[in-house]
Amino acid sequence: MVVSTDSLWDELSDGFRREFDDAVVYADAEMETVLHEGPAVVLANGWIELPSGRLLSPDAVHHVDPGSTE
Hints:
single chain, mainly beta, 70 residues
């Protein structure tokens, strides 16, 4: 029997991530509070990864307006 040392979640989650070259991440529906502008990656678990490595919680983000995708 062969057992992989890689996590199945890691392999599957790559197919569910969305990368944006230019996006605006808002904290509210009125689009008054901008959390981030620029490149961003929406991960499979709903967290948003910024180029600095910082992660934004799904609880903090209302929506993402995508510019262009890679």
